[in-house]
Amino acid sequence: MSCLYDYPQLYDVLFSDTCTTEIRFIESVLQKFCPQHRRTAMSVFEPACGTGRLLWRLAKRGYNVAGLDLNTKSVAYCNRRMLRHALTARSFCGDMTNFTLADLQRKQPFDAAYNLVSSFLHLTNDTQARQHLAAVAGVLKPDGIYILGLHLKPAGQAFCGSESWSMRHGTLSLHSKLRTLSCNSRKHVETVEFRIDVRTPKKRYSVIDRFPLRTYTAKQFYRLLKSANCFRIIETYTFDYDIEHPIKVNDTTEDTLFILRR
Description:
The chain contains 6 helices and 11 strands. It has helices spanning 8-14, 19-33, 55-60, 72-84, 126-138, 218-228; strands at residues 43-47, 64-69, 90-93, 110-115, 140-151, 162-169, 172-184, 189-199, 204-214, 232-238, 255-261.
């Protein structure tokens, strides 16, 4: 068994096709919900930043950015890329449930934060989730924005199923499959398997990782937010990243982007 996040180059390629759309959405959210966006260069933070695939793009566009991730290989990969592009921004190694501005080598709080790809679900109990929300709120300015994306489980659905996709970069070919292996409905935790089949002209191999993820129905997530008492929801969107078409979350909603205000 491997750790998916120990292969930052593969992860970067696997999620490369949505970067432009995600960056455009982040900027649209900042323009719409942060009045200071047009007056000054904004500071933006990404917890669970991984390879920094979005972080360095925002830095190139003039944002003052910082990231945090638990995986040392991903953090090192992110920071090497920052250096290659002559960027002074950095990501730091740390736990997304317990960090402060000092851990990010900052004195001033951030204007906004984002976490788009359900990394929040790695926090498998309410205590960890509340600690994360409190930590993010603690590094944001008053009225700061947190863009939080996660996969909601439709009410009554036992399993979240599976999804697969393929990506190519030069001679590197990747095929990935994410599938649910089991689900503990009492603890609201599922065990998932993430498999990447790798092909190059000279070799073939697979990276297989299994890990627990928290599941939330819409009602369960709303209860968590209320109990954390750090943020309020000001808008919701789907993973279509269409700023012009917000949605109303209901019991059948799945991939959701919550725009939270501190």
